[in-house]
Amino acid sequence: MVEAASGAAGRPRFIVAALGITQIISWGSLYYAFSLVIHALASATQASNATTVGAFSVALLAAGVASAPVGAWIDRHGGRWIMAGGSVLGGALLIALPWVHSVAQLYLVWAGLGVAMAATLYDPAFAVLGQLFREHQRRAITTLTLFGGFASTVFWPLTQALIDHHGWQMALMVLGGLNLLVNAPVHAMLLPSRQAPPRDDSPKPPQPARPSGLRGIWRDPAFYGLCASFTVNALVFSAMSVHLLSLLQTQGLSASHAAWVGALIGPMQVLGRSIELVFLSKVHPSRIGVLAMWLLPASLVLLAVAGAQWAPLVLFALLYGCGNGVMTIVRGAIPAELYGREHYGAVNGAMATPVLLAKAAGPLAAAMALWLWPDPRDLLLLLALAGTVSAALFGYTVRRRAVLAAA
Which of 81, 82, 119, 314 is most buried (CB neighbours < 10 A)? Predict the structure, then answer.
């Protein structure tokens, strides 16, 4: 049973489940739906697909810029009104999106949707859980990501069905309505305003020394090592998310077979999070992070040599999906493990900023690499090298900090 702070005592599972539903809607409508309306938006604005995709990159950039201020706000005022406001903003802009007629309008709307992402997706939700839960914030984070892992599974077919039967404009208005009529009320009614961190007087094992206050955290070299490793890791995953299907086809798979391999990754993310919840919940997040980080380059090397053979391709999807799924939990749990919960929102938001910027830059960086080295195996090995650097830096950072804390 997850223990909650006083305001949530007796209903922690209900709050996590409610937040889980809003995460499915937020991710499904603000993030995943874009890929299904690219061509329609390009036609409406008389722009190329590449220009239209750039609007989504602008959204991720805006989310990156807004993440740290959102986290700091939650530390001071709680998550109720910032997440409710983000849902209202996201819903209103999704309803407005079908009426854009120029590239400037398109980019402006998506910049606003990026701010809504910063206020409604995982990072603000993790900060809220940090204020609600005593001992088991990480378990709550894992449970929440299990919900979020089904966002694409639910919203890709739902959005496509709405487009097929009612048109893309009505589909976006329905998605906006879900944010306004479901997410905003749930956030406003169930989430707490700021409360003091709950006291827990039960005996605890000795804790490593932590930097005191935000100023001490900003001066900690480990903070920047972690940011760098998370950022490179996110850049690789982002590059692969856009180019995976085309890379699979260049290795000899048909479009449908490539789609099947890609479809395996979502369930494997959920599998990785389930394994973490059931078997690894007592292991320090930093140790799990070392394993998850190394799964990325291992999976990419495997993909580079797999060709069109199904067994190694399925193993690739297993390693890649599990690593990606667990990294979401690690990135949410690491700030509390290393720096406590008093400034969790600000620290987590600051770590999220370069990660979101990397997600925006990853597909472009991969496209430039393919232009320089057309062989897709070269791109996979280059990304594997980046993943190796990220994993090595993460491992060095957490080991170095443990040594300094014990000195």
Answer: 119
CA distance 332 to 285: 9
Average pLDDT over residues 30-45: 90
The DSSP secondary structure of 352-384, one letter per residue, reads HHHHHHHHHHHHHHHHHHHHH---HHHHHHHHH
What separation in angstroms does the CA of 213 have from each of 219, 342, 343, 393?
10, 8, 8, 25
Q: Is there a single domain that holds both residue 282 and residue 373?
A: yes
Which pLDDT value is given to residue 360? 84
Residues 348-378 have pLDDT tens digits of 888 988 998 898 888 888 888 888 888 888 9
- Let me know if residue 263 belongs to a domain: yes
Does residue 97 lie in a domain region? yes
Could you tell me which residues come within 8 angstroms of residue 146 by beta carbon, excluding any fewer than 6 positions away?
A: 20, 270, 273, 274, 277
Query: Is 4's pLDDT higher than 80?
Result: no
Distance CA 14, CA 304 (A): 44
In this structure, are residues 369 and 382 in contact, taking their beta carbons and an 8 Å threshold?
yes
pLDDT at residue 95, rounded to an integer = 97
The domain tally of the chain equals: 2
Domain extent for 289: 213-406
Contact at 8 Å (CB) between 321 and 272?
yes
